[in-house]
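## retry 2 of 3
previous attempt timed out at serialization; input unchanged, resubmitting
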Amino acid sequence: MKHLRLIQRAIEHGDRIALSTDREQYTYNEVVDRSSQIAAAILDSAPTPSDDLAESRVAYLVPAGFDYVATQWGIWRAGGIALPLSLSATEKELEYALAACDSCMVLSTDELAPRLSGLAQRIGINHLVIDPIAESSRDQLPTIDPDRAAMILYTSGTTSKPKGVVTTHACIEQQIKSLIQAWHWNADDCIPLFLPMHHIHGIINIMSCALWAGAKIEVHPRFDVDAIFKRVSEDAYTVFMAVPTIYVKMIETLESISPSERDSVIGGFSKMRLMVSGSAALPVSVHRQWTDLTGQKLLERYGMTEIGMALSNPYQGQRRPGSVGLPLPGVEIRLYGDDGQTIQSEDVAGEIQVRGANVFREYYGRAEATKESFIDGWFRTGDVAVLEKGYYRILGRTSIDIIKSGGYKLSALEIEATLLDHPAICQCAVVGVADETWGECVAAAIVLQKNQTVELDDLRSWCKERISAYKIPRRMLIVDDLPRNAMGKVTKPDVTKLFQ
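## retry succeeded, writing output
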């Protein structure tokens, strides 16, 4: 049977260690075998059991680690499209994700099953618990064409509801191979994984690249600075990837611990061959602080759910703070002006547009949004940049309704919609406010209903029951009215000034 290239490479890596935790470790062979069992169980449990799911959408709520990889690969090997769900999502957010992509099935571990069993029954889809899993009589899995859809990841975009980004197996393979080449991944690498596993940073940049290369992933349930520092001081890792917020946290911790402990941790960081920062803009001051502390020059890159990684500072060569570098292998980049012309000169701002095999196939069920996102075959990112001495520098988004906070892209409109459900609120505007730790923090200006009052701590608690914790506004301000233009439209830049 012909396997997907990622699976075939795992078979070739054989008894090498693929994943480890503080208690156990798993070989590549064990991951492949487990994925085969899950694939068979999926096919046997499908609404209409068959020999091929034929691009049916299969969601899964599984923690990072052995079962996560085996579940993702099992969905692919059964012919389905994998939809990873956020462990921090509320029931309302989970329901939206399952319904918006017409999921036929949802998978979970036994521990997480209570979060899905009632929901799956209510919306009428199968719920398969992967531990334990029944033996199957199947001895053959379908052959999967690389041009098939492989995964749906949700991105906020500029609308109030997230869009499902559909990538193919060929697209994912190109994204992986581009980073393998650019960042010199090899089988001797070891990397910690503590990032959320419903975003491209964790799924592609860390997990998939490491497994393609035959490297080892050390899985952590979350970012725990003490646990990470312990392993860094033991020279456990060769590669490290994190969002700017984590680098800020590590700097603060390094400055607070004893000199002997600090020297041990810094020694571990200084020996790594590569450290990467991404998913949000890294403040130049943080970049320089990290270099001063550890001797490591962080590699900044630029990417999106729709395109994977597109730009990167070089592995060998100058890494400029505040810059995202050059196009990655196999990726074409152009800057497009408001006049409809490609920008040929340096120091002229334009929208980043991307073309290549790394670009996604479509927004699921949103043909019009897909069409509007392309021009002459180029994907319109909505991000504005300039070319400075050969390197690209990001200036911001064409839309101010996207907030990049702690590595997440958040929709201001979605958060506003939640706040407006509160009975005491009649108007609100959500904006991103510059923040040294989070890149941007979510801020909300609120107008209350007549004769209503609300305590901000109570409002945050109310929000916690309805949206994920990282979407809850960190700064809130009650105002008499919102700034508006002559047409009566709320002006977000003027709202932002209220927090300065």
